[in-house]
From TrEMBL:
Residues 116-270 form the Cytochrome c-type biogenesis protein H TPR domain. The chain crosses the membrane at residues 6-25, 91-111. It is found in: Cell envelope. GO terms for cellular component: cell envelope; plasma membrane. Keywords: Cytochrome c-type biogenesis, Lyase, Membrane, Repeat, TPR repeat, Transmembrane, Transmembrane helix. PROSITE patterns: TPR. InterPro entries: C-type_cytochrome_biogenesis, Cyt_c_biogenesis_CcmI, Ig_CycH, TPR-like_helical_dom_sf, TPR_CcmH_CycH, TPR_rpt. This is Cytochrome C heme lyase. Coiled coil: none annotated. It comes from Photobacterium galatheae. Pfam families: Ig_CycH (PF23892), TPR_CcmH_CycH (PF23914). SUPFAM superfamilies: TPR-like. TPR repeats lie at residues 165-198.
């Protein structure tokens, strides 16, 4: 802000210069012009008198008198007479100076959005703190206000330093968290263009392409991830993305193959191992279900733009009786990958063997994003619900509400 006020002071001084400099320069020129005009007037008057005296025979040497007149008039113009008409008074400029200062800073205080500029500067100063909080895995998630502040701060820094690959990476991750696919893809692409051999940037860019769901983008992302695994065969995240992609495309054997490879990686941890085992079990159920089809309900689960996905969690899709009873007839847990999700729930997904979906003619379907894997806790979870659907029919759900 100090630089800003210095800049405004310089501009105001330049404006004042346009007022003051011409006054002084013009005053000097006026004084010179006035002196010249006065000399000429004296010379013409006295010359006329000499001619009259010469015609009357009062002057013996008119030429010498004319030369003497020219010399005396050049030397003896009364400076006091000139000054009394040309004397400049500096205090007369004071109103003009005050008007310029008042207009400059007065108008800025009205239309300059000074408070917004101050808030912007304060937000930029918080960028390191917010960045650190975003990068810490087990820290509390950023609030919407903090996320907006972080985005503004990052965009400001990237405007000043457009070749900062880390800054573009962070902006892309914010786009992913906000489900802003366009921003995420654009930021990750800029980061990858700056560091094309960085495996982290390759992984993140592939993730954003998969979130978009466009066929061409999906194929490009798969190719990028496979090339990444050729150079880094133990990259867990690349395998996980390919496994989730294969599962969502219904290619369950390929998904199982990737998950089995992930199980053999060193240091994957218990949480990841449980996630892998759950994915394998679900893929095997899907293979069995495809081999032994039974009447069910096909559902497509969409995600509203306002939904913020947690870093970890699962999607629970459940089928209930048409009266909306809380106890589900059938349910399925799915990895939290990309949306929309399309699946078919049948009797093989039943929760209680003696309460089968096939025994009901009308059903409703619910979907919930579960953050901790505990179905008993729902606070903060996002959910959606379908209308009444017939057994064997199709429906869609948009997850857009929050407990």
């Amino acid at each position: 802000m100090t630089l800003f006020w210095i800049s405004t002071l310089i501009l105001v001084l330049i404006a004042l210069a346009f007022l003051i400099v011409p006054v002084f320069v013009g005053s000097n020129q006026d004084q010179v012009a006035s002196r010249d005009e006065l000399n000429k007037a004296f010379f013409r008057d006295r010359l006329g008198e000499l001619k009259e005296e010469n015609s009357e025979g009062l002057i013996a040497s008119p030429d010498e008198m004319e030369v003497e007149l020219q010399q005396s008039l050049l030397d003896d113009v009364p400076a006091e007479q000139i000054q009394q008409y040309t004397l400049f008074k500096p205090w007369l400029m004071l109103p003009g100076v005050l008007v310029i200062l008042g207009l400059s800073y007065g108008l800025y205080s009205i239309v300059g959005n000074q408070q917004k500029v101050a808030t912007w500067q304060e937000t930029v100063s918080r960028l390191p703190q917010l960045t650190q909080k975003l990068m810490v895995q087990h820290a509390d998630p950023l609030t919407d206000e903090e996320m907006d502040a972080l985005t503004l701060g990052l965009r400001t820094r990237l405007h000043e330093r457009p070749n900062d690959a880390t800054g573009w990476l962070l902006l892309g991750r914010i786009g992913i968290a906000n489900r802003d696919i366009e921003t995420a893809q654009g930021a990750m692409k800029r980061a990858l263009d700056l560091e094309p051999t960085d495996p982290t940037l390759q992984l993140e860019y592939a993730r954003t392409l998969m979130m978009g769901g466009e066929p061409g983008q999906l194929q490009f992302a798969r190719t990028m991830l496979k090339h990444l695994l050729e150079r880094h065969p133990t990259n867990f995240e690349a395998m996980a993305l390919l496994a989730f992609d294969a599962f969502s495309q219904g290619d369950y054997p390929v998904a199982i193959q990737f998950w089995e490879q992930m199980k053999s990686l060193p240091g994957i941890g218990d949480d990841r191992l449980r996630m892998i085992e759950g994915g394998i079990a679900q893929a095997k159920k899907e293979i069995e279900r495809a081999a032994n089809p039974s009447p069910g309900v096909t559902v497509t689960v969409n995600l509203a733009p306002s939904v913020t996905l947690p870093e970890q969690g699962i999607v629970i899709v459940s089928v209930h009786t048409a009266d909306g009873a809380p106890m589900p007839l059938a349910a399925r847990r799915l990895p939290l990958s990309r949306f929309p999700l399309t699946l078919t729930l049948t009797d093989s997904d039943s929760m209680i063997p003696d309460r089968l979906m096939s025994q009901q003619s009308k059903l409703i379907v619910r979907a919930r994003i579960d953050r901790d894997g505990n179905v008993a806790t729902k606070d903060g979870d996002w959910f959606g619900e379908s209308g009444i659907v017939s057994l064997g029919g199709e429906t869609s759900i948009t997850i857009q509400s929050q407990f």
